[in-house]
Amino acid sequence: SGSGFTGESPGNLPIAKRWGPVEQATISYGYGLSLTPLQLARAYAAFAAGGVLHQPTFVKGGGDEGKRVVDEKIARQVNAMLQTVVSAESTAPKAAVPNYLAAGKTGTSHVARNGGYSNFYNSVFVGFVPASNPRLVSAIVITGASGSNIVQYAGGFVAAPSFSRVMQDALRVLDIPPDNVKNWYAGGPGPNPAALPREPAANTVEQAQGEPEEVEP
After folding, report:
1. Can you tell me the distance from the alpha carbon of 40 to that of 97, in angstroms, rounded to the nearest whole number?
2. What is residue 41's DSSP assignment?
3. CB 21: neighbour CB atoms within 10 A?
4. Looking at the domain 29-209, which fold is it?
């Protein structure tokens, strides 16, 4: 990712001109390459930012202006598709964040070992919230899951719940309001996040509250 953090792995992506039919097939579903969770989060942050890729930094305020790598219209379309992944009918309802629109993608792959693949899995979920005005991106990677049933190793079952819990706490600590604060209330179960109106989320609770409404006597 070029963060400058000591010891960061560069990942591995074969040069495209050397891809044969096998490489084209395996790379299409995520095999034959490697990357770090930070690189994965950075890639999804580009979709969250409307197609602009930013340099990750460990210093607050040290970010760059970024560069456009995906057309903004395409980024919005991908954002909308990623939101459906978290719906009750899709692969990662366990990644849903109460009262917020979440967007993301599951991932499940065998752990590479000794020139081949083991019977253990990398269970992955990466996504961002609030989907209408993304503020946070998280990549959850749990290595070593195994079992004969998909619920024991698939990203939507193993990594997605951790994404939900991490984001719930981060949103609370950072005081980031829901996508539509009018549909949110504290202390109770929120509506299905996928059913919330696509109104842009505010940046702070104060901004979301706006001007107080007058109440007739």
Report:
1. 20
2. H
3. 7
4. Beta-lactamase (3.40.710)
